[in-house]
Request: fold
Amino acid sequence: MLSSFGPAPRRRSVPVAVGKVTIGGSAPVVVQSMTNTDTADVDATVAQVMALARAGSELVRITVDRDESAAAVPRIRERLDRVGVDVPLIGDFHFIGHRLLAEFPGCAEALAKYRINPGNVGVRAKRDRHFSDIVEIAARHGKAVRIGVNWGSLDQELATRLMDENKAKGSPMTAQEVMREAMVQSALLSAARAEEIGLPRDRIVLSAKVSQVQDLIAVYGELASRGDYALHLGLTEAGMGSKGIVASSASMGYLLQNGIGDTIRVSLTPEPGGDRTREVMVAQELLQVMGFRSFVPIVAACPGCGRTTSTVFQELAKTIQDQIRDAMPEWRQRYPGVEALQVAVMGCIVNGPGESKHADIGISLPGTGENPAAPVFIDGQKAATLRGPTIARDFQALVLDYIEQRFGDGANRKPAAE
Reply:
């Protein structure tokens, strides 16, 4: 017997304002990304932030690692504001963040959030002092802080202490379990310390980045059960290409399905010369296929088989998908709600008509040996039959007309089939 199935209720977390964006609470899961330019290169960084924002990144993190990059941040913010790109910027600080924020107040003000790693702000007494300095600056400027623990730069004093305590137990945990516990404790203890210093809970986001799927699931499960801080999900060093996509989707998909996670980043290693916006698309697609958010119209297409020796359906599906991606920045403004559109491009008669009927608009192209006709279905009803060498172009025109009729302004705001 079939039973209803869906994601677990969203874990209740304290909402955090990051510029115009809210993380946690009842807000949708937020997509963010990070530049890989030298932040001191204002032109290159502005260009990449604009590209990431255009692709749909709702927050963009930039590296602030030295004086020159800190000095560049206000100019980057000013340039972005001048061209109407108001995406909030997050400063990524390691080792000397306390000094850079103190010596470059324009940087501290221009950023919407600071990301600090409690494992590398200093050692012993310096660690507490440097951490306090950053938190005090954040509180003074009204900024949010992400306390980002990382597997590769974990607080070694904490890890060593937990290892020693574990050895004294009658039934000790494994080394891996101790490291997971150290990650969780580092994040929670640091958050508690930030609150003591004066940073309110609604300005704190936690993350605990690891590189293995099962570790990420275990660590975030513990973080979610022990507190109500907003959580940033991400698999660090996820890898390149399909490996990075699969690992990120498997781990974050599981957590999201269980109601854990308020903002995500898919940390893909780009191909040499590759497009940095790829990680934004993957994050959006993960949230969309799981039913959490809609970002772009979905194009359903069959994988092909011996019935589909023609490549027309593949070429048409790619053309439609690329056209949608390229047009979305304009369409979001011009056609509110268009991101929920579903298009089907099918390659033969087996599933073509059925899939096309389920979509808002779909086409069933002729497979090998089938009559050279392509029925088009709009809102579940057969609306036209296309023939001849211009099938692909004609269907594209029908899709654009449907979008205009259904999502456009004025009296034409109704399904195109009516």
